Amino acid sequence: MARPIKETPVLKGDAAVKFLSDMQKTKEKKITSEALDKIKANSEKLRSISKF
Prior knowledge:
There is one protein chain. The protein is an all-alpha fold. The protein has one domain. Helices cover 62% and strands 0% of the residues. The longest helix is centred in the last third of the chain and has 17 residues. The chain starts with 13 loop residues before the first helix and ends with a helix. The mean pLDDT is 93.
C-alpha cells in the first residue's frame, strides 16, 4: 500500500527570503528568440521521427 503524501512545509525566515529572491531572478531571465527557434526546430524533428 502507498504511503500518504506529507504536507509541504511553509518557508519562513531566511529560507523564504532566499526563495523569493531566486524566483524574482528566474522571472527576469528570458529565453532568446534564437534559442526558442532552435527548441521548436528540435521539437519538430522529434515529432517527425516518433512512432506512437
